[in-house]
Protein backbone atom coordinates (compact mmCIF):
# COMPACT_ATOMS: atom_id res chain seq x y z
CA UNK A 1 0.00 0.00 0.00
CA UNK A 2 1.54 3.30 -1.06
CA UNK A 3 1.23 6.31 1.20
CA UNK A 4 1.94 9.82 0.02
CA UNK A 5 2.54 13.06 1.92
CA UNK A 6 2.94 16.31 0.03
CA UNK A 7 4.43 19.47 1.45
CA UNK A 8 4.70 22.86 -0.15
CA UNK A 9 7.81 24.80 0.73
CA UNK A 10 7.78 28.56 0.52
CA UNK A 11 10.24 29.80 3.14
CA UNK A 12 12.71 27.20 4.32
CA UNK A 13 16.12 28.69 3.79
CA UNK A 14 17.93 31.22 1.68
CA UNK A 15 16.49 32.12 -1.70
CA UNK A 16 17.75 30.85 -5.04
CA UNK A 17 18.97 33.87 -7.01
CA UNK A 18 17.53 32.42 -10.22
CA UNK A 19 14.20 31.56 -8.65
CA UNK A 20 11.31 32.86 -6.64
CA UNK A 21 11.46 30.04 -4.09
CA UNK A 22 13.54 29.34 -1.01
CA UNK A 23 15.99 26.44 -1.15
CA UNK A 24 14.72 23.63 1.11
CA UNK A 25 16.70 22.87 4.27
CA UNK A 26 15.60 19.23 4.19
CA UNK A 27 14.59 16.44 1.86
CA UNK A 28 11.21 15.34 3.23
CA UNK A 29 12.35 15.75 6.80
CA UNK A 30 15.98 14.67 6.37
CA UNK A 31 18.03 17.82 7.12
CA UNK A 32 20.56 18.87 4.48
CA UNK A 33 22.38 22.13 3.91
CA UNK A 34 20.64 24.22 1.28
CA UNK A 35 23.96 24.94 -0.43
CA UNK A 36 24.23 21.23 -1.23
CA UNK A 37 20.81 21.24 -2.94
CA UNK A 38 21.02 24.57 -4.76
CA UNK A 39 23.31 23.41 -7.62
CA UNK A 40 20.73 20.78 -8.60
CA UNK A 41 17.60 22.97 -8.55
CA UNK A 42 16.34 24.71 -11.70
CA UNK A 43 14.81 28.18 -11.88
CA UNK A 44 11.16 28.49 -11.01
CA UNK A 45 8.63 30.12 -8.72
CA UNK A 46 7.60 27.34 -6.33
CA UNK A 47 9.20 24.24 -4.80
CA UNK A 48 7.32 21.32 -3.23
CA UNK A 49 8.22 17.93 -1.87
CA UNK A 50 6.30 14.68 -1.83
CA UNK A 51 7.17 11.84 0.54
CA UNK A 52 5.93 8.38 -0.42
CA UNK A 53 6.16 4.91 1.06
CA UNK A 54 5.56 2.52 -1.86
CA UNK A 55 6.20 -0.60 0.24
CA UNK A 56 7.42 -1.60 3.68
CA UNK A 57 11.09 -1.25 2.73
CA UNK A 58 11.26 2.06 0.86
CA UNK A 59 10.81 5.77 1.54
CA UNK A 60 10.97 8.22 -1.35
CA UNK A 61 11.16 11.99 -1.59
CA UNK A 62 10.47 13.89 -4.80
CA UNK A 63 11.36 17.59 -5.07
CA UNK A 64 9.31 19.32 -7.77
CA UNK A 65 9.60 22.85 -9.16
CA UNK A 66 6.44 24.68 -10.26
CA UNK A 67 4.37 21.50 -9.80
CA UNK A 68 5.76 20.02 -13.00
CA UNK A 69 9.57 19.70 -13.07
CA UNK A 70 10.98 16.86 -10.96
CA UNK A 71 14.35 18.23 -9.84
CA UNK A 72 15.59 15.78 -7.19
CA UNK A 73 14.56 12.30 -6.17
CA UNK A 74 15.80 10.53 -3.04
CA UNK A 75 15.23 7.05 -1.72
CA UNK A 76 15.97 5.14 1.46
CA UNK A 77 15.62 1.43 0.82
CA UNK A 78 16.25 -1.73 2.82
CA UNK A 79 18.07 -4.22 0.58
CA UNK A 80 20.13 -7.34 1.07
CA UNK A 81 23.31 -6.80 3.10
CA UNK A 82 25.20 -8.29 0.17
CA UNK A 83 23.90 -5.67 -2.32
CA UNK A 84 26.66 -3.72 -4.00
CA UNK A 85 26.62 0.02 -4.65
CA UNK A 86 26.80 -0.61 -8.40
CA UNK A 87 23.53 -2.55 -8.15
CA UNK A 88 21.83 0.06 -5.94
CA UNK A 89 22.97 3.30 -7.61
CA UNK A 90 20.70 5.00 -10.14
CA UNK A 91 21.66 4.24 -13.73
CA UNK A 92 22.71 7.87 -14.26
CA UNK A 93 25.32 7.54 -11.50
CA UNK A 94 26.59 4.19 -12.80
CA UNK A 95 26.79 5.42 -16.37
CA UNK A 96 28.72 8.57 -15.48
CA UNK A 97 30.41 7.44 -12.28
CA UNK A 98 32.84 10.03 -11.02
CA UNK A 99 33.95 8.37 -7.81
CA UNK A 100 33.45 5.35 -5.62
CA UNK A 101 34.47 4.51 -2.07
CA UNK A 102 33.51 1.56 0.11
CA UNK A 103 30.34 3.46 1.17
CA UNK A 104 29.50 5.81 -1.73
CA UNK A 105 29.20 5.86 -5.51
CA UNK A 106 28.56 9.26 -7.08
CA UNK A 107 28.51 11.20 -10.31
CA UNK A 108 27.52 14.76 -11.11
CA UNK A 109 23.83 13.85 -11.23
CA UNK A 110 23.30 10.90 -8.90
CA UNK A 111 24.67 8.91 -6.01
CA UNK A 112 24.16 5.93 -3.71
CA UNK A 113 25.26 5.38 -0.15
CA UNK A 114 25.57 2.40 2.18
CA UNK A 115 24.57 3.14 5.78
CA UNK A 116 26.52 1.90 8.78
CA UNK A 117 24.88 0.68 11.96
CA UNK A 118 21.32 0.67 10.67
CA UNK A 119 19.45 -2.37 11.91
CA UNK A 120 15.93 -3.65 11.59
CA UNK A 121 15.06 -6.65 13.77
CA UNK A 122 12.27 -7.48 11.33
CA UNK A 123 14.81 -7.73 8.48
CA UNK A 124 18.15 -8.84 10.02
CA UNK A 125 19.65 -9.76 6.64
CA UNK A 126 19.03 -6.27 5.22
CA UNK A 127 20.95 -2.97 5.12
CA UNK A 128 19.56 0.53 4.54
CA UNK A 129 20.83 2.23 1.37
CA UNK A 130 20.39 5.85 0.27
CA UNK A 131 19.95 7.11 -3.28
CA UNK A 132 19.88 10.63 -4.72
CA UNK A 133 19.23 11.57 -8.32
CA UNK A 134 19.10 14.99 -10.00
CA UNK A 135 16.94 15.52 -13.09
CA UNK A 136 17.88 19.12 -13.85
CA UNK A 137 19.61 19.37 -17.23
CA UNK A 138 23.02 21.03 -17.33
CA UNK A 139 23.40 20.95 -13.52
CA UNK A 140 26.12 18.33 -13.04
CA UNK A 141 28.33 18.83 -9.98
CA UNK A 142 30.20 15.71 -8.83
CA UNK A 143 32.03 17.31 -5.85
CA UNK A 144 28.74 18.68 -4.46
CA UNK A 145 26.88 15.42 -5.15
CA UNK A 146 29.56 13.58 -3.16
CA UNK A 147 29.05 15.98 -0.23
CA UNK A 148 25.26 15.69 -0.57
CA UNK A 149 25.15 11.86 -0.49
CA UNK A 150 27.53 11.79 2.48
CA UNK A 151 25.51 14.38 4.41
CA UNK A 152 22.16 12.79 3.49
CA UNK A 153 23.37 9.29 4.47
CA UNK A 154 24.76 10.59 7.79
CA UNK A 155 21.40 12.20 8.61
CA UNK A 156 19.52 9.01 7.69
CA UNK A 157 21.85 7.08 10.02
CA UNK A 158 20.75 9.40 12.85
CA UNK A 159 17.04 9.04 12.01
CA UNK A 160 14.30 6.65 13.05
CA UNK A 161 14.55 5.07 9.59
CA UNK A 162 17.91 3.61 10.61
CA UNK A 163 16.53 1.92 13.72
CA UNK A 164 12.89 0.93 13.17
CA UNK A 165 10.85 -0.22 16.13
CA UNK A 166 11.66 -3.65 17.37
CA UNK A 167 9.52 -6.57 16.33
CA UNK A 168 6.84 -7.51 18.78
CA UNK A 169 8.11 -10.52 20.71
CA UNK A 170 6.16 -13.46 22.06
CA UNK A 171 3.56 -12.76 24.69
CA UNK A 172 4.81 -12.44 28.22
CA UNK A 173 4.50 -15.50 30.44
CA UNK A 174 3.12 -13.37 33.25
CA UNK A 175 -0.58 -13.44 33.83
CA UNK A 176 -2.42 -10.15 33.59
CA UNK A 177 -3.25 -8.61 36.95
CA UNK A 178 -6.94 -8.25 37.81
Can I get a quick summary?
By secondary structure, this protein is of the alpha+beta class.
For the biggest sheet, the summary is: 8 strands, antiparallel
Q: What multimeric state do the chains show?
A: single chain
Shape: globular
Question: Order of strands in the sheet with the most strands?
Answer: 1-4-5-6-10-9-8-7
N-to-C order of helices and strands = EEEHEEEHHEEEEH
Strand content: 25-35%
Cα Rg = 18 Å
Mean pLDDT: 82
* C-alpha end-to-end distance: 39 Å
Taking pLDDT < 50 over at least 5 consecutive residues as the criterion, the unreliable ranges are 1-16, 167-178
Q: Got a strand count?
A: 10
Helix/strand class: alpha+beta
Proportion of residues in helical segments: 10-25%
The tally of helices reads 4
Task: Describe the 3D structure.
There is one protein chain. By secondary structure, this protein is an alpha+beta fold. The chain is built from four helices and ten strands; from the N terminus they run βββαβββααββββα. An eight-stranded antiparallel beta sheet has the order 1-4-5-6-10-9-8-7. Strands 2-3 form a two-stranded antiparallel sheet. Strand 5 and strand 6 (69-80) form a beta hairpin. It is globular.
